[in-house]
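pasting for the record
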Amino acid sequence: MPSRLWRPRRVLVTRSALTHAHGRAIAERAAGLGADIIELSGDRLSLPKPEDPRAAYREAKATLAVVVASKSKRRLQPIPPSADWRFDLAEGCHAHCQYCYLAGSLAGPPVTRVYANVEEILAGLPQALGQGGVTSVSPERAGEGTTFEASCYADPLGIEHLTGSLSEAIRFFGAWDAPVQLRFTSKFGEVGPLIGLPHGRRVRVRLSVNAQALIRFEGGTSPLSERIEAIGRLARDGYRIGLTIAPIQPFEGWQEGYADLFDQTARALDGAADPDLTAEFITHRFTPKSKTVLQDWYPGSDLDLDEARRSRKLTKFGSTKWVYPAPQMREMRDTLTALLAERLPQARMLYWT
């Protein structure tokens, strides 16, 4: 049985969002699940401000906001090494991952915002056809066409039962007669709404997975078994599929843990005709800002955020991030890529970071 779907306690709907049929439909779905619908008189979100930071976090994580993506929010952004371009159907996530990278990327309370003007967002994508700096210029990935990533700042599948936005995007790409690909990744396994959609093999769904011992850091997400089962369902429905293996961490017995992950995936794909499986490897890293936020959100976590066991690295913007030391990184990469080749020989590795 699938995990229980998220039911926000409160849904804030801006005035502009109510002018879009898609926005009204989101509010109606949420109301049907028992959410308290609050129609705002304007477009400014009004959020409660409890004095207790933990209470503020809980309130924000239980809140869905239906808003309109502004022109600046609809501007396409490059997103290497995943894809040529990033576009957003939503921003924020209701899950409780103790390493959440959004903690250092998005400002303000962690409210999940979903966009009512999906048609307008999708209508802006064709301008980027044939452009981009990843698959559009890569001989190794040229077969993917111009790629568009829809899950940089959100998990669109985890809220699909409320929004329907991902299904709209899949239909859009399925009807787009061009060398393009929609890409998104998710920690949720409820793929029922996607099965049977006319995706035209222009959609790659990647499930974000990790060794079982690390799933305990991912509160509010689907169990690993459900995500792996979803990979098989999607492959049998003709979708291109992938594994986003993240965030990789060297726990005790990590070699066996990741081998088991690949073995489970192989069993789930048994009998799938042409899964076109890819793998993306992302190691754990954190920034000073994200560490501060995460320790406020999860004060009892035993997630390793000790800078003494990491190497300092500068981003292209000059900011600091803490990554695993080079020898440890090489060991993990050599081991995991070898395991992938042995246990899932049909998989194509896209990158390691």
